[in-house]
Amino acid sequence: MRVSLGHIDIYDDRVATFAKQLGLRSVQLHTPNLLPGTGGHWTLEELTSLRERCDRDGLMIEGLENVPLAHFYKVQRGLPGRDEQLENYQKTIRNIAAVGIPLLGYNFLPTFVWRTNMLDTGRGGAMVTSFNLDDAVHGNALEGYRLTPSEPLTEPIDADQMWANHQYFLDAVLPVAEEVGVRLALHPDDPPVDAPLGGAARIFTTPTALVKAWDQAGRSSAWGLNFCLGTVSEMGGEDAVNAVIDALGPDGAIAYLHFRDVQGTVPAFKECFLGEGNYSPTRVLKRLHSVGFDGFLIDDHVPAVIGDPDTWMDISPEAYCSRGRSHAIGYLQGILEALEIAN
Questions:
Q1: What mean pLDDT, rounded, does the chain reach?
Q2: How many domains does the chain divide into?
Q3: Could you tell me which Pfam families the record lists for this protein (predicted)?
Q4: Measuring CA to CA, which of 15, 164, 224, 281 is 20 to 30 A from 214?
Q5: Per-residue pLDDT tens over the stretch 300-315
Q6: pLDDT value at residue 150
Q7: What is the pLDDT of residues 37-64, one digit of tens each?
């Protein structure tokens, strides 16, 4: 296993230097600023430029995650025009393959991630985010984040329709991914609550549902799970995490990891530092190793410690290259070295 610098929104010299100073050799980018995709898809030219930029910095691109919202919202919502968006998504997959990027992460959240408090207090006064279903009636505290839709749903979307929309998506794009050798990776629904948030049902909310998603993909090797440990921990703590590892890990259906944790499970939880949440990071890494996982992991949603500007909403390099992120990455590197499973 290896730690990659991940969830990078704005890539520049500062971020590249941060990665190298932490001893990392690769990056994973999240709807990055260097891929505007103004024509409805990520073009070969802009992907080539991104790849060449990272190559010059001596950093391999492990994968990309989340195309711009404007490229995908009709697919998620099952709206007229989704076929055109799917054609563009196919172009993105082909172009990613052409520049040698092996993985594309996606989510299927028409109303995106929800939090009810962006300024909660964690250990020692660190800034963390939290969610309480009772407070969700007041709306999403992530409103204004660049991947949170500004347009409300015109009508509710129930679970059956969401499952159908996801199947429609897979049927359109998986054959292309299989043809060109790109792997698609699904992020679980965060928070994993049964209650619709913003009018859309959430379907990837249990370990069983994640296996069902794999079944929808025909257990294709071109599909995998973006195993967000924090989201799965929200489902049911370490028991839920273990259930996903045991169900998907032995067959190689775990693509990569978002490594974070929370205290508490739905309907209420709070993000926290690694090592003080619902699961033991050491036990989880040992279990992943035991089922043969040898991919990459990234830190995710780190607390903002003293001197750090923010947690989520500030995506600038200044906020990204934080003390909280350095702590999380060093923590993970230490465990991998102690377990002798780092590569």
A1: 97
A2: 1
A3: UxuA (PF03786)
A4: 281
A5: 999 999 999 887 889 9
A6: 86
A7: 999 999 999 999 999 999 999 999 999 9
3-state DSSP of the chain: CEECEEEECCCCHHHHHHHHHCCCCEEEEECCCCCCCCCCCCCHHHHHHHHHHHHHCCCEEEEEECCCHHHCHHHHHCCCCHHHHHHHHHHHHHHHHHCCCCEEEECCCCCCCCCCEEEEECHHHCEEEEEEHHHHHHCCCCCCCCCCCCCCCCCCECHHHHHHHHHHHHHHHHHHHHHHCCEEEECCCCCCCCCCECCECCCCCCHHHHHHHHHHCCCCCCEEEEEEHHHHHHHHHHHHHHHHHHHHCCCCCEEEEEECEEECCCCEEEEECCCCCCCCHHHHHHHHHHCCCCCEEEECCCCECCCCCCCCCCCCHHHHCCHHHHHHHHHHHHHHHHHCCCC
Contact 191, 234 (CB under 8 A): yes
What is residue 151's predicted lDDT score, i.e. its pLDDT? 84
Q: Which two tokens mark 29?
A: 């980018």
Tokens linked to 236: 């049911």
Q: What is the arrangement of strands in the sheet containing 5-8, beginning at the earlier edge strand?
A: 2-3, 296-299, 254-259, 223-228, 183-186, 103-106, 60-65, 26-30, 5-8
Check residue 11 and give its pLDDT: 97
Task: Give pLDDT tens digits for 191-241.
Answer: 999 999 999 999 999 999 999 999 999 999 999 999 999 999 999 999 999
**Per-residue pLDDT tens over the stretch 212-221:** 999 999 999 9
| Measured distance CA(233)–CA(239) in Å, rounded | 8
Q: What is the pLDDT of residue 311?
A: 74
Q: Structure tokens of 104? A: 């594309």
